Amino acid sequence: MSRTLPTRCRRWLDAIALYVDGDLEADLCRALEAHLRQCPDCRLLVDTTRQTLYLYRAASRYPVDLPPDVHRRLFARLPGVGGTRSAAARPNSEAQA
Ligand SMILES: [Zn+2]
């Protein structure tokens, strides 16, 4: 997915963000919807933005509270996430069972 949005669509980016949020003013909303009818790229962008927003809101409504040891083990297995760079290089004495 290295495609970029066509130049003619870039001006709609801000409008799409507002549109998905329901904050786009009526005139612009009609203009954007007219564009969406003939532009699959922007329709895809609207869908993706909606889904992302939905997931983000769902996630913030139901925060997952992992037990500390599960959290530590999970993040220990995710390279580059949390922890320190040298954590993988040295024996993890805490995790020894
Ligand atoms: Zn477009």
Question: Would you give an account of this structure?
Answer:
With 97 residues, the chain is mainly alpha-helical. It has a domain at 7-61. It has five helices and no strands. It has helices spanning 7-10, 13-21, 26-38, 40-61, 68-77. α2 crosses α4 and α3 crosses α4. Residues 85-89 have low confidence and may be disordered.
Biggest beta sheet attributes: none
Q: What is the average per-residue confidence, as pLDDT, rounded to a whole number?
A: 81
Order of helices and strands: HHHHH
What share of the residues does DSSP label as strand, in percent?
A: under 5%
Q: Portion of residues in helices?
A: 55-70%
Give the CA-CA distance, first to last residue: 43 Å
Bound molecules: zinc ion
Helix count equals 5
Class by helix and strand content? mainly alpha
Give the radius of gyration: 21 Å
Number of strands: 0
Which stretches are low in confidence, meaning pLDDT under 50 for 5 or more residues running? 85-89
Shape: elongated
